[in-house]
Amino acid sequence: QLQLVESGGGLVQPGGSLRLSCAASGFTLGGWSIGWFRHAPGKERVGVSCISGRDGSTEYADSVKGRFTISRDNAKNAVYLQMNSLKPEDTAVYYCAAPCRKLTTRGDYWGQGTQVTVSS
């Protein structure tokens, strides 16, 4: 079964950090562009960040630039999202998906999501 599996979500105070992981099962992430998306209650799902499978170049939504960092480890078949200086407005379910370009995806692969809650 080909799937993506996210982990690392949780409850964190404003200003805190979390690291999300996206692991591939049944296929190799190497060569695929991978993205992180988030869906907050009452809002549309939006792209947060993409990382190229070709050259490792990255894209970020303006709302997270300077705070979030996307990375990949092809040897571990995983992509990560390091989230620092978290704000309450970052609260959402975070999904990884493939492929990803210009913060959008055609959705060949989706994970099940991981909840991130930023609250004091």
The total strand number stands at 11
Our estimate of the beta-strand percent is over 45%
Unreliable stretches, pLDDT < 50, 5 or more residues? Answer: none
The residue-averaged pLDDT reads: 96
Q: SSE order in H/E notation?
A: EEEEEEEEEEE
Describe the fold and architecture:
The protein is mostly beta strands. 0% of the residues lie in helices and 48% in strands. It has no helices and 11 strands. It has strands at 3-7, 10-12, 18-25, 34-39, 46-51, 58-60, 68-73, 78-83, 92-98, 109-110, 114-118. Strands 2, 4, 5, 6, 9, 10 and 11 form a 7-stranded mixed beta sheet that branches. The chain is globular, with a radius of gyration of 13 Å. The mean pLDDT is 96.
Summarize the structure.
The chain has 120 residues and is mainly beta.
